[in-house]
Design goal:
By secondary structure, this protein is α/β, with parallel strands linked by helices. Helices cover about 40% and strands about 15% of the residues.
């Protein structure tokens, strides 16, 4: 008898920020496990291209534009996502707005406000659209993309780390308040992943080598390195894991 814990057939997953990099890898992984998937980006053409790509690979996918920085757009996206396949069982909050880089004492306050609104408020607004129906069906998984910067100080990404730490708090509270209805919430907290966002930190071979050396694995994570954890937390295999911030860091946090 084959183990069915990772089977997502009959489930619908919504993944924001999922037209490239880590978000696209997670969307593909969930689809490979049988889920119907909604992909999104704030750029319509990117959204359409990602949906077409995954559909060409044989998956049941729809693309819906979402600008996570715009509250009206978030509300519209939530309703359109529920209509896309008639339900939402899994929501992966991966989209992010602009990230201030530099010492936290020098962070522009308007940029900090925008970061917190996007990372905390707007993601919570999105999730709230899905929680009651998840509870009614007694199945739901909320995944939020956090960062190792939420757990360990990062001199260049202090504001980003603070916002992600607040996100982790939202995850714990959702898990505590909605767990009685079998709705789980967890955060994925990777270290450096090779994406468009990370290129500012990996802009020379020397910088990449120095960053890789911080981990016992001595390499930078690739987007596919995050997919297995996302599948675990989204699927019945992770049914007793909730309220956690899972570090996916190649062992960096242990040294």
């Amino acid at each position: 008898m084959n183990y069915k814990g990772f089977d997502l057939a009959g489930r619908v997953a919504v993944v924001t920020g999922s037209t490239s990099g880590m978000g696209l890898a997670i969307a593909r992984g969930l689809a490979q496990c049988g889920a119907q998937v909604v992909v999104s980006s704030h750029i319509q053409s990117d959204t359409d291209a990602a949906a077409s790509l995954l559909a060409s690979e044989g998956f049941d996918v729809k693309g819906i534009r979402c600008d996570i920085t715009n509250i009206a757009g978030v509300n519209r996206f939530a309703e359109e996502s529920k209509s896309a396949f008639g339900r939402v069982d899994i929501v992966v909050c991966h989209a992010a707005g602009p990230v201030p880089v530099g010492p936290i004492a020098d962070t522009d306050i308007d940029q900090l406000d925008a970061l917190l609104l996007t990372t905390v408020r707007n993601n919570l607004v999105l999730i709230r659209h899905f929680l009651p129906e998840m509870a009614e069906r007694r199945y739901g998984s909320v995944l939020m993309t956090s960062s190792i910067a939420s757990e360990r100080a990062s001199p260049a990404l202090g504001a980003y780390g603070a916002a992600k730490a607040a996100m982790n708090g939202v995850v714990r509270t959702i898990a505590a308040e909605w767990g009685q209805w079998n709705v789980r919430a967890n955060a994925l907290a990777p270290s450096m992943v090779r994406t468009a966002f990370s290129q500012i930190m990996l802009n020379t071979p020397e910088a990449e080598k120095a960053m890789a050396a911080k981990s016992p694995s001595n390499r930078i994570a690739e987007p596919d390195d995050i997919v297995g954890a996302a599948i675990l937390l989204a699927s019945p295999a992770g049914s007793y894991i909730s309220g956690q911030t899972l570090l996916i860091d190649g062992g960096r946090s242990i040294i």
